Amino acid sequence: MSKRSRLITSASPGQTAALARHIGRHIPPGAVIAAYGELGTGKTCFAAGLARGMGIGETIASPTYVFFRIYPGKIPLAHIDAYRLEGLSEEEIALTGIEDCFAAGNVAFVEWPGFISPWLPQSTVELHLERGATDTERILEFIYDPKEQRWLDEAFSY
């Protein structure tokens, strides 16, 4: 499979959230976005914007202490923070109920996805976030298969 890479520079958290809102308007049920990046690079900011674009009005916060939260909506959003799952066996991770997040009708947004890689579908969109030249600038790189994620190409065509 030939994957596509798309780099976007965001000047501020507001711009990152706006991009995520736009993507949220296009994202279909079953989509999974795996967000890679250091602390403070905007993963939760992106999740909050994505939720707004999906029509979810609840405040989105990092689910670090509960592993994940599923926000109800026309399309439910499963927001997963896998950071504290590091070092757990697959059986222990399964006991958290994480499989519910990847139900066909949900969208899943995963922070620290490397800790739950066996649960990520092959069609997962990778989102890499890095700090840019200023305190607020972020570089977002999306890596995805355009055949499986036509919706993302549509979202980028704005």
What is the count of β-strands? 7
Q: Give the uncertain stretches in residue-range form.
A: none
User: Alpha-carbon distance between the termini?
Assistant: 26 Å
Strand content: 25-35%
Question: What does this protein structure show overall?
Answer:
This protein has 158 residues and is an alpha/beta fold. The protein is built from four helices and seven strands; from the N terminus they run E-H-E-H-E-E-H-E-E-E-H. The protein has helices at residues 13-26, 43-53, 90-94, 150-156; strands at residues 4-10, 32-36, 68-71, 77-81, 107-111, 125-131, 138-144. Strands 1-7-6-2-5-4-3 form a seven-stranded mixed β-sheet. Helix 3 (90-94) links the parallel strand 4 (77-81) and strand 5. Helix 1 (13-26) crosses helix 2 (43-53). The model has no long low-confidence stretch (mean pLDDT 91).
Note the topology.
Layout: E1 4-10, H1 13-26, E2 32-36, H2 43-53, E3 68-71, E4 77-81, H3 90-94, E5 107-111, E6 125-131, E7 138-144, H4 150-156
Parallel strand pairs: 2-5, 2-6, 4-5
Antiparallel strand pairs: 1-7, 3-4, 6-7
Helix pairs in contact: 1-2, 1-4
